[in-house]
Amino acid sequence: MKKITNNVGLGKLTMLLDAVIAVCIIISVILLIRFDKVNVRYQNTKPVYDTYVQDSLRLEQIIGDCQKKIDNAAEQKGILTNKIDSLKAEYKVIEKDRKVEKKVKDDLQNAIKFDEDQYNSFVTAITTDSTTQVQAADTLKMNRIANAELIGTYTQLEQDSKSPRMAYNVMIIITILLFIGKVVLFALWSFRNMKNVHAVSPWMEKSTKPIWAILGWCIPVYNLMKPCSVFSELWDETKYILKSKEIANDDDDNQMEFIGLWWGLHLFAKCILPLVVGGLMVCFNYWFLPIAGTDFLNMGVFFGIRGFFLNLNHTFVAILVILAWLLYMGYEIYMVNSYNKMNQMLVDNENKL
Q1: Are the beta carbons of 28 and 322 closer than 8 angstroms?
Q2: What are phi and psi of 301, to 5 degrees?
Q3: What is the pLDDT of residues 137-179, one digit of tens each?
Q4: Nearest residue to 124 via CA among 113, 116, 135, 114
Q5: Is 241:198 a contact under the CB 8 Å cutoff?
Q6: How far is residue 211 from each of residues 192, 194, 198, 226, measured CA to CA in Å?
């Protein structure tokens, strides 16, 4: 007689977490809609504000560049002043000295004139740059005055969006942690049930090892397929055992559709919808995050400023999220409960195995 473990309690705990996650998703979406009301106005104001900021930065750059040119010209002007004074003093000494050749005097005068021309060019450059700097500063001041209301509105919307976004982030992080906990429980529940099947079915020796009920959830990309195939095999073999041992005779001709629907809802709710929504909900795809860019969390319907944000109806997506997760969690509860009944039959009829 083979030892069969009773995993009903673990299955019930998994179902309880499914129900809690469903409630958390509803709360998260409600908080998300609350954030979205402010964020839509914030994102609509952002392009105009960004244009103002870019213009301000450009003017500040002009002011800064002019100041650097003025400082550099003033420095060069000071150097030339000293040089010209030195050359003039030298010329004054040799001007009436008949022993000094005329060419030397002429070269010295030319040098003085050249430096004076350079000096004047620096004076002109300082005047020009100072005028440009003043004009840019006046334009910057006028822009700030003209956009005072825009700046105030944008700043207020930015502040108003922080609190509801933080509330959503906290709730979705809690939901994600609960989901990871649920996955661990579900994997452990599947693992123990798979061990039961292996214990009473010698032909399962060359089939899927029970450990894959856990590992299948952990390997990126592979976890998009393996948990489904493991559970499908578990369901199929358990049904076969119950029927072959005359414990239960009900046929399940729609087994693949049954498991496929569950897994399709899983992929849609956990993998696809979070990418559409954006924000921290993307973290449901925790295995995908290492290859995501820093701006990845700001994409989507509720957090982006283009694409999904502009083209999809926010309310529709919010309702779709709730419905998808309720269907996924509800169907998983139904599925786990159905298998719990089969597990209980194995336990109750262990002497027949």
Answers
A1: no
A2: -70, -40
A3: 999 999 999 999 999 999 999 999 999 999 999 999 999 999 9
A4: 116
A5: no
A6: 9, 9, 12, 12
